[in-house]
Design brief:
Layout (H helix, E strand, L loop, with lengths): L4 H23 L1 H7 L8 H21 L3 H30 L15 H21 L9 H23 L20 H21 L3 H26 L4 H31 L1
Helix pairs in contact: 1-3, 1-9, 2-3, 3-4, 4-5, 5-6, 5-9, 6-7, 7-8, 8-9
């Protein structure tokens, strides 16, 4: 394996998000219970606590390297349910309530709009990559992982495009809040990171030097998150919402690092 510590670093970044999200599920369980859709789902408070416990267990598994594949598979299901039962209904409701604001759904609305849905979708794909690194069969990458790889590249392309259209929310993976505060050379770094995401996403989607593209993407996302959120968190008084968005960005960067490991394994077997 090339750089065997890299997927462990990616899993650690994902674990940080899981630990913090789990704590928020218990601290704000009442709110978590309200965003779950459809409204007739029973035992809503129980599911808020249960999913928080699941995140905590997955984070421990990632850090201790115990039952990591099983934890990653269950985490994939959990993030899928988040997208299907929280983000999708919120987006549909927003469009029905205010169709004239449809263009703003890219960056804001309800539970974070398309941006936040894409982040959780990318985290779901990242969990697929973690499961793939721990598969027992020494074979080439299975088709579900190849599908997840292509989707991951497509999400990065969308985020890259956004850097050239919705510049008020960049650089870095666009957050739900505008960058109304000072960042040195913000527009330049926005275009630079957007171009990097576009190129890396296109290479990953096309399967051309995808491993190297995933590595470069992971480094780019990590750097953008660390540098931009120094200013973002300070401007928003280190709010929980901004901090969890920062950790989501770290988690997606970690997913790209794990993807590099998955694709490098496949290239190594081919050679």
């Amino acid at each position: 394996m090339v750089w065997p510590w890299l997927p462990r670093l990616g899993e650690f970044f994902m674990a940080l998000l899981l630990f913090y999200s789990a704590s928020m599920h218990y601290k704000y369980a009442g709110y978590v219970a309200t965003v779950l859709q459809p409204p007739w789902i029973p035992w809503r408070l129980f599911w808020a606590y249960f999913t928080g416990l699941g995140m905590l267990a997955a984070g421990v598994s990632f850090v201790l390297h115990r039952q990591t594949r099983l934890a990653a598979i269950l985490l994939t299901v959990l993030f899928f349910l988040y997208v299907a039962l929280i983000h999708a209904p919120s987006l549909i409701r927003g469009i029905l309530d205010q169709p004239q604001d449809a263009t703003n759904l890219w960056a804001s609305n309800g539970t974070g709009g398309i941006n936040n849905a894409l982040k959780d979708f990318a985290l779901m794909l990242s969990a697929v990559f973690v499961a793939a690194t721990h598969r027992r069969e020494p074979t080439s990458v299975p088709w579900p992982v190849k599908l997840a790889t292509g989707l991951f590249g497509a999400v990065m392309i969308l985020y890259g495009i956004e850097h050239y259209i919705y510049t008020d929310f960049t650089p870095g993976l666009p957050s739900v809040s505008k960058v109304s505060f000072w960042i040195p050379g913000r527009l330049f770094w926005g275009y630079f990171t957007g171009g990097g995401m576009l190129l890396a996403g296109a290479l990953i989607l096309a399967g051309k030097r995808a491993a190297e593209a995933a590595l470069a993407l992971g480094i780019l996302l990590l750097t953008a998150a660390l540098l931009s959120y120094i200013f973002r968190l300070a401007a928003h008084d280190y709010s929980n919402g901004e901090f969890i968005n920062f950790l989501k960005d770290l988690g997606v960067a970690g997913g790209a690092m794990v993807l590099f490991s998955v694709l490098s394994q496949d290239v190594g077997r081919a050679n």
